[in-house]
Amino acid sequence: MIDLERIKAASVAYFRSLDEGATLRHHFRHADEEGGLWYFEAVPDRGELIAIKQAELTPAGRLHRYSWEHLQDEHGFLTDQALAPEEDPLETIPVEEFQQVWNQ
């Protein structure tokens, strides 16, 4: 039997530890085909870039935010896939741009 609460607690603990222990943060933006904008704050972990914060600004102007404090809801979830800026169409952005969106 799968213990979903234990899995969620482990995920929260992992992303929280990355967020609280980060000394180097990277910020990215991605535009999707429908006109939505995705923003990521990522930190290095074991040779990969892991998103610790993610914001989606929909074409309708709705903002959805995900982090260890709010992993998922009916609209989406914090990605569990490592980011690969060299392969994915991600644009590096300044921390200020990310913070402006995140703090809306």
Describe the structure.
- The protein has 104 residues and is of the alpha+beta class.
- Helices cover 25% and strands 31% of the residues.
- Characterize the overall form: globular
- In the predicted model, the low-confidence regions spanning at least 5 consecutive residues are none
Number of helices: 2
How much of the residues is beta strand, in percent? 25-35%
The total count of strands amounts to 5
Separation, N- and C-terminal Cα atoms: 40 Å
Structural class: alpha+beta
Largest sheet: 5 strands, antiparallel
Radius of gyration computed on alpha carbons: 14 Å
Overall mean pLDDT: 94
Give the SSE string.
Answer: HEEEEEH
Question: In which range does the helix fraction lie?
Answer: 25-40%
Task: Report a brief summary of the structure.
This protein is an alpha+beta fold and 104 residues long. Helices cover 25% and strands 31% of the residues. The longest helix has 18 residues, at 4-21.
List keywords for this structure.
single chain; alpha+beta; five-stranded antiparallel beta sheet; 5 strands; 25% helix; globular
